[in-house]
Amino acid sequence: MEYRFKDFRILKNKSLTQATQYVRFDKAVAADAIRFHKNLPGYAPAPLVALKELATATGISDIYCKDESHRFGLNAFKGLGGSYAMFRILCERLGLDYKTVDYRYFRKDNVRKQCAKIHFVTATDGNHGKGVSWAAKLFGCSATVFMPKGSVETRRVAIEKAGNATAEITDFNYDQAVEHSWNLALKNDWILIQDTAWDGYEQYPEWIIDGYLTLAAETVEQLGQIIPTHVFLQAGVGAMAGGVMEFLQSCYREKPPIFTIVEPVEAACIYQSVKAGDGLVHTLEGNPSTIMAGLNCGTPCRVTWPAIRDKAAFFCACDDIITEEGMRAYANPIGRDKAIVAGESGAVTYGLVNRILQDETLRNLFRINADSVILLINTEGDTDPDGYQQIVHGKSFTK
Ligand SMILES: Cc1ncc(COP(=O)(O)O)c(C=O)c1O
């Protein structure tokens, strides 16, 4: 069932199932990822911010934001995935047992000499490439990063500065940039480290998603006895959303939260695939345009698609104005709630939740009441600082 509202639309999952046949992204997988990340330089759990005054003002129990904008100094959560996948790939290449070694092993000169011969390639809207560049430097490897047409130059420069990669803005859309990277990997014997999966390319994306579980495992620990009733997750290809959702479902089996997947309307590949109703992933054509650069993807990730299709309760496709509202609301909280710097791809869930909380029909649709505990993830900070400043000071890029 599709509901259309001003600036966003909602699809309710007709075939929602709580049955957990096979859970790939569970506690054991998260434990390996978090053990690895804890040994990296600069590791600290990302803060879980309670927006208490907002919760009181809107008549719900709690609203929390896992703020990933400080993660490893990269301004986004993505380094969690790139670094863990690179670790697993290098372990495989060097014949190491990932269960027993950790990053400290990779500080040895003889190991770094071997790593120096390994070159990675990837396509990115920005944040994943920055994580790959940073991880390449950590391990003593190198990388080439391709960005889709329309990418912001400051994000390209940030990728190069973050570590050891060269980055180029291409004329391709995101899917074409991925294909280009894949072809170069085959031609030059580079390793494609891509944060989305397709038939025959699943293992590395799975390891990337395993790495994202660190943020979810930290959140569960930070929440303690509190169980979220509603989780809103933004999606590009849905790798992060699917992994985090499966993990949280496995943690909260007795009281599963209601999961909502949120995308930009122009690049709503999950929304459109669900709407098609045949159970398959569908690819969007053309060069979708949205300020939510990290969410501007045309094909759902095959690894997480079945879980998202079957276990998310709602799918939302939002105009850019929704994330602009979210960015401003995070920057100007009410009362003594903490201000959060949230970029275009980080704030859309908050913008949407604010709209829902203000509307009785929507509150009923999502079953939000006085006992509700809402969990959001701010997945990036001001990764385009100029754009961020303009938006929080009132400018709108909405067409
Ligand atoms: C800031 C930010 N948030 C969310 C996402 C979405 O992640 P996924 O593509 O796994 O859905 C991305 C992806 O690049 C991102 O950069």
Task: Give a short overview.
With 399 residues, the protein is of the alpha/beta class. It contains 15 helices and twelve strands. Pyridoxal-5'-phosphate binds next to helix 5 and helix 9.
Structural class: alpha/beta
Please mark out the parts with pLDDT under 50 across 5 or more consecutive residues, or reply none. none
CATH architecture call of the largest domain = 3-Layer(aba) Sandwich
Q: State the helical fraction.
A: 40-55%
Number of helices: 15
Please write the CATH class name of the largest domain: Alpha Beta
Terminal Cα separation, in Å? 27 Å
Return Rg in Å.
20 Å
Main beta-sheet annotation: 8 strands, mixed
What number of domains? 2
Share of residues in strands: 5-15%
Examine the coordinates and then state which fold CATH places here, giving the name of the CATH topology of the largest domain: Rossmann fold
Bound molecules: pyridoxal-5'-phosphate
- Average of pLDDT: 96
In sequence order, what are the helices and strands, one letter per element? EEHEHEHHEHEHEHEHEHEHHEHHHEH
DSSP, total strands: 12
Approximate shape = globular
Q: Which sequence of strands runs across the widest sheet?
A: 1-2-11-10-9-12-4-3
Polypeptide structure, described:
This protein is α/β, with parallel strands linked by helices. The chain has 2 domains: 2-77 and 205-392, Rossmann fold; 79-194, Rossmann fold (3-Layer(aba) Sandwich), CATH 3.40.50.1100. Helices cover 41% and strands 15% of the residues. It is built from 15 helices and 12 strands. The protein has helices at 27-38, 52-57, 79-94, 109-115, 127-139, 153-162, 174-188, 203-223, 239-251, 269-276, 305-311, 320-331, 348-357, 360-365, 385-392, and strands at 2-5, 8-12, 48-50, 62-67, 119-123, 142-147, 165-169, 191-192, 230-234, 258-264, 314-318, 373-378. An 8-stranded mixed β-sheet has the order 1-2-11-10-9-12-4-3, sandwiched between helices. It has a 4-stranded parallel β-sheet with strand order 7-6-5-8, with helices on both faces. Helix 5 (127-139) links the parallel strand 5 and strand 6. The chain is globular and about 60 Å long. The structure holds pyridoxal-5'-phosphate. Residues 76, 78, 125, 127-128, 195, 234-241, 294-295, 297, 345-346, 379-380 line the site of pyridoxal-5'-phosphate. Pyridoxal-5'-phosphate binds next to helix 5 and helix 9.
